[in-house]
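Provenance

Sequences were taken from public entries as deposited. Structures were produced by running a predictor on each sequence independently, with no templates supplied. The record for FAD-dependent oxidoreductase from Mycolicibacterium insubricum is shown for reference.
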Amino acid sequence: MVVGLGISGMSTAIRLHRAGWQPVIVERSPGRRKDGYFIATMGTGQAAAHRLGIFDALPDRTPPSTSCNFEVERSGKRRKSVGIFDIPLKPKPMLQLRGDVEEALFNALPADVEVRCQTTPTAIAQDADGVDVTLRNTVSGAETTERFDLVVGADGLRSTVRALVFGPHERYLHRLGRIVAAFQLPRVPTGLGPSDGAMQFEIDRSLIVYPFADHLPTALFSYASDDIDAEFTESPVERIRAVYGPAPYGRLLDEVIDGLEHAEYFLFDSAEQVKMDCWHRGRVVLVGDSAWCPTLYSGMAGAELLGTVLQTHPGSLEGALTEWERRLRPYITAYQQAGAQGALLFTPPNRAAMVFRRAMMSMRRSPLLRLVLTAIMKAVPSFQMRNSDITAEATPPAELRAAGYSANE
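Predicted structure for FAD-dependent oxidoreductase:
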């Protein structure tokens, strides 16, 4: 049983099905989520997408080279800048919406993979031979108990599977002291071209408008908070107006805040990481945000590697899961460290950080200094790992052949 119809859940189901398992996916929501915001699929995610057979179905919405990125101020002053991912990495990052990835995975699910929506686990009990899961229909309230060989928790940051098997959220969630709000804009902001981006950075708060080649832009608010719980005592737009106040906000902020107020779908949540000493317990294993949030691209990669290790180590489930963790943990550690550092990049805590960030952006506009900066960034382990093929690097060639991969894959 795979709990969660998101990127990690569907990736797990596809890969385990290929390895000979018969996955059943359960999802609390009424159906597959079709909205979503900004994703940069870097080398790690691209390699996993190739292995899962969905790479050709992923659109690359990277803006054309003729687009511009601007750093703006409330006064209306703006200067040309560079995009967040405007770095000559190989392979080049692909910019997408989360919904793009989920649609590709959903369409790639084998026909005999059962998907049950409006269904959630309420109890999980296991022994040496299997796992008994009590499932509740969220509409009728009816409950049934079924037995599975393996349960995969791919149900997000506040995972029900993790809470039932490993303990309360408070034991594993580590707040980064940041709140994020993201949504799709209803139109291109005034003064920007259809594929232009914009960034507005102030101390402890920022706004980024992410452009796409053939889609309306999305917006991301990110701000620091000393009292995360208090952020949820008012509506998201009320909190944004208060945190980014006092007015006047300036044209860009004003338009984007108005868009948030009228948005049908949006994300408003605290930025948190999941930190666990072990991602599996018996016949229950966690993947994706349930186990190691935040790593946007490793939802596919971690799941793909799980299927490979289970296929190449059929003799012992415990041994396979332990080996999977051993191979994956160095990558996740690097991703989490980069995520914590990125919080400071997106929300500069003081004026010195603002000056440093602006200097870094200026370096990236200079062709010569950009080459130097790129060389430095490529030497950083977290950047190297973001473009790693996790399965190929963590798995000996003989095991890949045993898992059914050709040399070209």
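The CA atoms of residues 168 and 363 lie 45 Å apart.
The longest strand covers residues 173-184.
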